[in-house]
Amino acid sequence: MDEIGIVKRISGIIATVSVERKSACDSCKAGCKVTDSEAVIEAVNEAKASVGQKVRVEMKPYLYLKGSIIIYGIPAGALIIGAVIGKELISGFVKNMDPDIVSAVSGFGLFALSFLAVKIWSRRFEKKTEYKPVVAEILE
Predict the structure, then answer these.
(1) 3-state secondary structure of 108
(2) 28, 31, 49: which is closest to 40 by C-alpha?
């Protein structure tokens, strides 16, 4: 995924780039700061761009795919695993409740815990530059 934008600020090896906001920005989880007219991306400045230059920001596809799997796959798997554990194991200990209710409660409970775990885990990776977009080239 590539975006074209203008460098707004340089801080060490990180460039803050303003790109045109798209409709996909509403559902994206890339961590950009989105306003009504633009999205602001923090990217590693490999092209050595300066403030005011037009640049191409590249988001590595395998990182985007990996992030999507982590954000969506882990909670979905936790929901299913929690529901199965609730139905097969926990419902045996709670005799006075319907097994389907126990299954739903344990499934959604593990689902919620997985979101918390993903949030904590993703904060660790936000700080690492190898997981950030890259300013690939200067266009002007």
Answers:
(1) helix
(2) 31
**Which residues lie closer than 8 Å to 112 by C-beta, 6 or more apart?**
none
CA distances from 65 to 6, 18, 30, 76 (A): 26, 23, 11, 16
**Of 21 and 25, more confident:** 21
For residues 41 and 97, what is the distance between their CA atoms, to the nearest angstrom? 50
Return the structure tokens found at 26: 């509403």
pTM (2 d.p.): 0.60
Three-class secondary structure of residue 32 per DSSP: coil
53 vs 77: CA distance, rounded Å: 44
The pLDDT assigned to 26 comes to 54
